[in-house]
């Protein structure tokens, strides 16, 4: 006696597009929340090695937690509104530029490690931005 093979149902062709956008938003949200908590909880400890004053890391941490909450809300929509996804892509692009500006100017008394920290942060934001942009484009092409 043979039993039929159990395979997972394949998603419809258009279903993969919103999933990329939704997944990117969720991972971006969770990583923003984690980074925000690190900036808040470790602001005193990070100040020495990075040269990032607590007067900057606390507002960064709060902004990251707010952004994480917004990303979670957007990702939770049954159908992600395109204008909100575009807002995320634009916001991430501006955040990436701001991190690079802070890393390569003397606005903050950063150490070499602090500069590297901001550059790596900018690269991470750039990757999320690209994933969300591609997900948005695919969702638009799929008609979602």
Automatic annotation (TrEMBL):
Transmembrane region(s): 29-46, 58-77, 84-104, 116-136
Domain of life the protein comes from: Bacteria
Keywords of the record: Membrane, Transmembrane, Transmembrane helix
Protein name, UniProt field: Integral membrane protein
Species of origin: Streptomyces celluloflavus
């Amino acid at each position: 006696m043979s039993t039929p093979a159990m395979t997972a149902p394949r998603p419809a062709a258009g279903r993969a597009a919103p999933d990329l956008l939704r997944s990117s938003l969720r991972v971006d949200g969770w990583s923003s929340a984690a980074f925000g908590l690190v900036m808040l909880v470790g602001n005193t400890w990070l100040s020495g090695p990075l040269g990032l004053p607590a007067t900057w890391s606390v507002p960064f941490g709060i902004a990251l937690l707010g952004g994480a909450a917004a990303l979670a809300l957007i990702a939770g929509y049954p159908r992600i509104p395109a204008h909100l996804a575009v807002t995320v892509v634009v916001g991430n692009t501006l955040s990436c530029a701001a991190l690079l500006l802070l890393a390569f100017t003397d606005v903050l008394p950063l150490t070499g490690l602090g500069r590297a920290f901001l550059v790596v942060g900018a690269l991470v934001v750039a990757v999320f931005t690209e994933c969300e942009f591609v997900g948005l484009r695919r969702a638009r092409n799929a008609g979602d």
